[in-house]
Specification:
alpha/beta; globular; 25% strand; 29 strands
């Protein structure tokens, strides 16, 4: 599918046929094009800052950042790692780097030192721009690769000198401060905002962003993404979502390292909405932030919407502004969705929460169920520009990469693997041709398809909705973090006390799912209390607290295998679900906080 080309589409949500153009420009140029008639509208607001930032001011600040970073020597194709929070400065920074033509690598501020080192060494950036509180976790990796940092405070936009002073003292004591004007973003911008710069020529379908994922195989890797790919998804959402310029969208999802968050940010600004930024991204703050910002639109995971149902004393009329709500990450349980929508009604909001399917490899959404427009319980229609195909698992068992072949679909109503294709598709996994070849397959016409690893079935001949049936891949969400069982199993096997291990998921009201460890011990002399402490120390220091066990089962017997000799994860997941459905449920050994 070529970009910058007019094509005819039928908007399945409205049944309207129209001609649309697939964008073929940089993220910033697309933003500027969309903002031209709305420069006096509010673009950003930020908690603690009384005045709001108009689109005209937004573009002025982006240009100042561009000039200053160019003066610092940042150029086209430089690899710049960024680690930031949802603040205005971070938005200026991302678009400025896009104008320069740098490749932006998103690092998670939730990473521990182990994960920071892993990601920095994978992409080998030329510079690191980070909030100062995270530098301590990046310092050793940056020194080993001679990466020069630029630091800034996430409180810069807040009008509270006292809070800033306390924060700065703490960062100094923690060793997160780097002195010198060449390392301080605020000074760099102040001294370079009028410097000359050259705009990089836009090259379509080249690497502009690298974001991290476990993908369909559970192996941690970088995803190479393009600017025109993101623009195409935002353009597609014009035909799906209902918000209009001047409305407010909650900016709660982290956009520095999360694909879904980056999409929401770009969508909100390209739609000329007021993007109400907040640092309170945790689910238990979701209701408060919706009320504070009087948001017309918001997105989150099921855990965010579930938190509203658990909010005591919802004030009548407090949510009456909300016109559009979407969920992503994990599929909604029908009973949860019903209780969440009931809670919204208590606040005066009568929307049906939308749902869908999204992938980092496709710049997030591929299918969206719009509440009231789609059949409940489905993932809805494929968004414009995205094509879907459902093929058999057997077809994909031994396919050859880079070979054109027939890809017949399974009969309607039969479960198969979802393939997707479209202009938002990733260019590949970063410097990882082996993993890339596992997920791209070509049909007889040369069309490249991404193998999602998601099990779905098409609902009917005249119904282009899809029903989600499960995952071939085993990853799941705990709280707001993705858990990749294969990655977790590999880390646990580093302990000599563990002979075999299978990690599954168990449902949890607060966190969606908790990891469940099924461990075959190396011998009968092992002290499981000591082993548990070793496991928790290893996992928390590497993969993070969300990967800690919610349930542990020890055995001296070999773990169950499938017919082809692989560990039988579905057997243990079914076993966990059965135990969890019993009156007393599983004996949870640790809650994740």
């Amino acid at each position: 599918m070529e970009n910058n080309k007019k094509i005819k589409i039928v908007n399945q949500y409205t049944k309207e046929e129209k001609e649309v153009t697939i964008p073929n420009n940089s993220k910033y140029d697309f933003l500027l094009e969309r903002n031209q008639k709305y420069m006096n509208y509010n673009a950003l607001s930020f908690k603690g800052k009384k005045e709001k930032i108009t689109y005209e001011e937004l573009h002025t600040r982006i240009e100042e950042y561009t000039r200053a970073l160019y003066k610092q020597g940042i150029r086209k194709d430089d690899v710049i790692a960024v680690c930031g929070a949802n603040t205005p400065e971070f938005i200026y920074l991302l678009y400025a780097l896009d104008i320069i033509g740098a490749t932006v690598v998103g690092l998670s501020p939730l990473n521990n030192e182990y994960k920071m080192k892993r990601d920095i060494e994978m992409v080998k950036p030329t510079r690191l721009i980070t909030i100062d509180m995270m530098y301590g976790k990046c310092k050793n990796a940056c020194k080993s690769l001679n990466v020069s940092p630029i630091l800034y405070s996430p409180l810069e936009s807040m009008n509270s000198p006292f809070m800033k002073m306390i924060y700065n003292v703490k960062q100094f004591l923690d060793g997160n401060k780097v002195f010198g004007k060449n390392h301080n973003l605020r000074k760099i911008i102040r001294e370079g905002k009028n410097a000359p710069f050259e705009r990089a020529p836009f090259v379509p379908n080249q690497i502009n962003d690298v974001l991290f994922t476990g993908g369909s195989t559970g192996i941690h890797k970088g995803v190479d993404l393009s600017s025109n790919g993101l623009n195409s998804v935002v353009k597609a959402l014009d035909e799906v979502l209902i918000l209009e310029p001047g409305m407010t969208h909650l900016g709660n999802i982290p956009f520095g390292h999360m694909c879904f968050g980056r999409l929401v940010m770009h969508y909100a600004l390209c739609k000329n909405l007021e993007f109400a930024l907040t640092l309170d991204a945790l689910p238990n703050k979701f209701y408060d932030e919706l009320v504070r910002t009087q948001a017309d639109g918001a997105m989150g995971g099921p855990v965010h919407w579930n938190a509203i149902a658990q909010t005591p004393n919802i004030k009548p009329g407090s949510l009456s502004n909300l016109k559009q709500g979407l969920s992503g990450g994990e599929m909604f349980k029908p009973e949860d969705k019903n209780s969440d929508e009931k809670a919204l009604k208590e606040g005066g909001c009568y929307i049906e929460i939308g749902d869908g399917l999204g992938l980092t490899e496709m710049w997030a959404p591929t299918h969206v169920n719009m509440g009231g427009k789609n059949t409940p319980g489905t993932i809805g229609f494929a968004i414009p520009f995205v094509r879907s195909k459902v093929v058999s698992l057997k077809l994909l068992e031994n396919f050859e990469p880079n070979v054109y072949q027939k890809l017949p679909e399974v009969p309607i109503g039969e479960v198969g693997i979802l393939l997707v294709s479209g202009p938002g598709m990733m260019l590949g996994y970063h410097n990882n041709i082996i993993e890339t070849n596992k997920v791209f397959i070509y049909d007889e016409n040369g069309t490249k398809w991404y193998i999602t690893g998601d099990l779905v079935r098409r609902c009917g001949i005249d119904n282009n909705e899809f029903k989600f049936a499960g995952r071939q891949k085993r990853n799941f969400v705990c709280g707001v973090d993705n858990i990749y069982p294969e990655q977790l199993e590999a880390k646990l096997l580093e302990l000599p006390e563990i002979k075999e291990v299978v990690v599954t998921k168990v449902p949890d009201e607060k966190y969606q799912f908790l990891p469940s460890y099924h461990i075959c011990l190396a011998n009968d002399q092992i002290d499981t209390t000591v082993l548990k402490n070793k496991m928790e120390t290893l996992i928390e220091s590497t993969l993070g607290a969300s990967a800690l066990p919610g349930y542990i089962e020890y055995t001296l017997e070999p773990l169950q295998k499938t017919d082809n000799g692989k560990l039988n994860a579905p057997f243990y997941e079914a076993q966990d679900l059965k135990k969890n459905s019993q009156e007393n449920g599983l004996n949870l050994v640790r809650k994740v906080y």
